[in-house]
Amino acid sequence: MVATRLSDVAARAGVSVKTVSNVINDYPHITPATRAKVEAAIAELGYTPNVSARSLRKGRSDFIALAIPEMASPYFAELGAAISRAAKKRGITVLIDQTEGEPAAEQFVLDGMRGQLIDGIIFSPITTAPTKITVADDGKPLLLLGERQPGGAVDHVAVDSVQASFDATNHLISLGRTRIAAVGVGGGAGTGAVRRKGYRKALKAAGLPIDPALEIDGTGYHREDGAAAMRDLLALPSPPDAVFCFNDLLALGALRALADAGLSVPGDVAVVGFDDIEDGRYHSPSLTTISPDLDWLADKAVTLLLDRIAGTGPPERLDLSVPYTLQIRESTTG
Amino acid sequence: MVATRLSDVAARAGVSVKTVSNVINDYPHITPATRAKVEAAIAELGYTPNVSARSLRKGRSDFIALAIPEMASPYFAELGAAISRAAKKRGITVLIDQTEGEPAAEQFVLDGMRGQLIDGIIFSPITTAPTKITVADDGKPLLLLGERQPGGAVDHVAVDSVQASFDATNHLISLGRTRIAAVGVGGGAGTGAVRRKGYRKALKAAGLPIDPALEIDGTGYHREDGAAAMRDLLALPSPPDAVFCFNDLLALGALRALADAGLSVPGDVAVVGFDDIEDGRYHSPSLTTISPDLDWLADKAVTLLLDRIAGTGPPERLDLSVPYTLQIRESTTG
DNA sequence: CTGAAAGCGCTTACAG
DNA sequence: CTGAAAGCGCTTACAG
Q1: CATH class, A161-292+326-333 region
Q2: Could you tell me the distance in Å between the CA of residue A82 and the C1' of nucleotide C10?
Q3: Could you report the per-residue pLDDT of B53-63, keeping only the tens digit for each?
Q4: Is A327 near strand D, with its CB below 7 A from some atom of it?
């Protein structure tokens, strides 16, 4: 596009290209006078560096990829916004890649997205089992979001889902509920299994029975899955008096099904979600949910990935636990 | 990263680099035998082209930017997903840039996002007035989403907001409502003004009075703005019996405020939105709204922008009108 | 502190 | 149909 090159700036400022490059890259040992001359020339010519040339030479693009199942899903949209913001602060651009949960797309990510102009990858898998995740030796730095891979070789940043699910279930128990359903046990990449673990743990701790009829698959984690799950639960001989949905979309779908059935929330059935997306906060009734600190997550994930890219990260793989709170709202306390 | 270069492939296949390049770029006049040899070498070495080098040489990156106010807002998240998908089909990668409605960020976009590795820009402004939008002569191709700029020099793809707002308001009139409020008249980049135009037009056509007290600013277009607007409307000496909100988030906020006030929808107040985001479809009551065809929008926007980049677009600036439907749901018909 | 030159990995005229 | 070579615009040893 613009024809201005580094050498044009150098000519105009009366210095060598090396000097201009030094100024642009903020290297030391430039006299203020030289710097001023160069900066004036840059301004006059409206020069901007050619990113392709720089990447080619340096072997770094200052781009990272964020691979998520779908950006239109509110949790991932909010996550993407947080990560983009955190990266921008560090001069890094985020490329968002939608895998749509397709195994081939997820494998492409695990293979380092070869040919893509990126220095590293933040990946939220949904199809690939955590145990299947390994990094190629010649691959780009990879950081995983979501459920943990015990003993894996990849950095992780995630909420402690077992503990959070225990807390969510326990909240329902503390309200005196005894038939507590779980929706989303079939969730991908280990999510369903891990959250069910916390759910069952809370039931056991309270001396409540575990009833497989109350554990619903809910694969897909969308509103329609939550609504369908709730309809199934209401059709049971003895329906639940509370539901822990493994994400907020499932919970919002469940609330819709409860409204359709003419039941009151939390009077007849209390509902808890997971994620704290904005929809849930404004919904009527507002949704009790697990609220992870997305800004914390984004900051740590970007920082750690950039450390890996720079080769300055710790020698061992890291497993960071995202702070969260249980937000108690109308769907459990009226 | 990977050390394999074009010349390595050429050496392995026993041909020149030119031939390998020809195979990769699908140029004609390659014998099937040569092609097979080259493809075998590529597969054996796991070769992938270096994108920086290619961009530097060709002066094209096959990246386009999508500049939107915020990707966590459901409408923009859904728009971003649709545009990413449409671009991917054509081998183009979309870079999402969040302006957060900041004037400086929007100006940066209008200046062609200099220094960014992109061939063109799809831009949804929110702060910059449509009349202020012009393109630099040396700038990259730019395509605008949102309200029209009459007589401007930039391609546009947008819903006919006047007509759509007329339809939405008319739907409320046809239900016998007579005090119809409008929320969002202060919306950025002309949106509020244009939608109010359609709203007023419908009132006039029906012989209903225009009451400025029923036109609420609603700037921000988020749920909280809709809730605040609704509370203001309910505090009027004679509150409205219907509300046309200029986007779905405003409408969802209004529904929340109506629920808090113990009013029934649509019994006491009917509500219409604009955008057809997924939240509205599952909300209880589900939201009557204007539903633009986002896949149509994404396809046309990407195609037209790529034509501009290639220099094959029509000589005149284009103004494409996105098909839409009025989705009638519970918030107006119970 | 600065200059001249090589080279990152491609694509593309230019010859053959 | 293929080969040898130039050049896209940077950064970075290497000299001075």
Answers
A1: alpha beta
A2: 35
A3: 888 888 888 88
A4: no
- CATH 3.40.50.2300 in chain A, residue ranges: 63-159+295-322, 161-292+326-333
Q: Residues for chain B: how many in total? A: 334
A148 Cβ neighbours under 8 A, 6+ residues apart: A130, A156, A158, A190, A194, A319
**CATH 1.10.260.40 domain range(s) in chain B:** 6-49
List every span in chain B annotated with CATH 3.40.50.2300: 61-159+294-323, 161-292+326-333
Query: Mutate which of B6, B47, B52 to disrupt the A interface (most A C-beta within 10 Å)?
Result: B52
Distances (CA, A) of A232 to A184, A287, B243: 13, 21, 36
CATH topology of domain B61-159+294-323: Rossmann fold (3.40.50)
The answer regarding whether domain A63-159+295-322 maps to CATH 3.30.1380.10 reads: no
Tell me the pLDDT tens digit for each residue of A170-188: 999 999 999 999 999 998 8
Q: Which CATH superfamily is domain A6-49 in?
A: lambda repressor-like DNA-binding domains (1.10.260.40)
Lowest mean pLDDT among A21-30, A139-148, B101-110: A21-30
A-chain CB neighbours of B48 within 8 Å are 114-115
Q: Cβ contact (<8 Å) for A140 and B1?
A: yes
List of chain A residues whose C-beta atoms are within 8 Å of the C-beta of residue B262: none
- Which pLDDT tens digit goes with each residue over A44-84? 888 888 888 888 888 888 889 999 999 999 999 999 999 99
Cβ-based neighbours of B166, under 8 Å, separated by 6 or more? B198, B199, B201, B202, B205
